[in-house]
Amino acid sequence: MKVTFYSNFLTHHQLSFCLEMKKILGDNFKFVSTMRIFKWRLDLGFKDLDQEYDFVVKAYENEEEYNLAKNLAIDSDIVIIGSTTDELIQERLKQDKITFRYRARIFIFLDGFIKTVLDKEKMQLFYNRHIKYRKNKNLYLLCANAYGANDFNLLGLYKNKIYKWGYFLETNTYDIDKLINKKEQNKKIQIIWVARFIKWKHPEMVLRLAKNLKKQNYDFNIKMLGAGVLEEKIKKEIKKEKLEDVVQVVGQVPSEEVKNYMEDANIFIGTSDSREGWGAVVNEAMNAGCAIVANRRMGSAPFLIKNGQNGYMYNNYKDFESYVKELIDNKELRKSFSKNAYTYITQEWTSSIAAKNLVKLFESIINGKENDVKDGPASKANNYKYKKEIYYNSCSI
């Protein structure tokens, strides 16, 4: 079986999955990179992984590589399309060969329906990607967002052909009981938030939480990791509200060092809204044995969090604060969530399992059989829904 994965460029979020596919398929697995890595990613310390692995075809580099990328689109048994130019894969789609789109949510639900309908370029892009070949029998969707299936199905797209997907990071192995016991030696409950300081990540929620916890005499400390346009504003608010003793803005931290902070943290909080396509920091925090409290609207949350078992998903600020306080107050619940989170992410949502499940799915389609994967990566995606979103930007701290 020859499988080719097209995307912009190889990232650390895709690498471990690709390495597992390489283990299974050998030279029959290729990753086609269609553009050079962004300079801003290099400036943040990310590596240009395209240059480090022999399974990467760099379509942007020269004519020979481009033609190889184009030929793979025709010759491969299975093609996964994360992101690529239409001309590379158009002939394959015309021939209705087995092809998987790899998407989170439909962009019209991210930018607003009216705004998108009035944008000719966006509508043409959406048409080419999802509507033009909607009648293809062999066109499927790997959905890297719990709410994506509902989005697409509302438009009558990919009916009964959508499968759970996401991000599968390289997992670190711990003696989890030892790690949790180490966390419990903290003099104060350590809470961690990792995100960019931008509007839809809602860093203001963290300050509102800190202010209320401090008023109620909770003994805690919050570290905020990341950078962004709202960073200075948040720092000023911390000073204005006299929260310096309970909130520290650590700033931008290299990705390999984030895990060190997570290993020390008792609780991870994720406050992004529905514009968070996935949220790989949830994977990372679960791997590091953090008790999770995350917005239900984050793309990864319903796939990774079993509510009340390995974490909490909240619907509004009231729930958010209540869940954090419960985890601070209840040591045994906190430890249970931490252990269950680690177990799930290292045993049920790994790159190895994702690759094996996906190959099983591919084989079942090629052989015309029912998919044996019933849960986890590459299983049929459910139509997750939630009530109309309540944004937090109006919340003052």
What does this protein structure show overall?
- It is built from 17 helices and 13 strands.
- It is of the alpha/beta class.
- α3 packs parallel to α4 (86-94), α10 (203-215) packs across α15 (317-329) and α13 (280-287) crosses α16 (331-347).
- The chain has a seven-stranded parallel beta sheet with strand order 3-2-1-4-5-6-7, with helices on both faces. It has a six-stranded parallel beta sheet with strand order 10-9-8-11-12-13, with helices on both faces.
- The protein is globular, with a radius of gyration of 22 Å.
- The N and C termini lie far apart (56 Å).
Name a few traits of the molecule:
397 residues, disordered C terminus, 6-stranded parallel sheet, 7-stranded parallel sheet, single chain, 17 helices, alpha/beta
Distance between the termini: 56 Å
Question: Biggest β-sheet, characterized?
Answer: 7 strands, parallel
Mean pLDDT score: 91
Q: What is the element string, with H for helices and E for strands?
A: EHEHEHEHEHHHEHEHEHEHEHEHEHEHHH
Query: Level of helix content?
Result: 40-55%
How many H/I helices?
A: 17
Widest sheet: strand order?
3-2-1-4-5-6-7
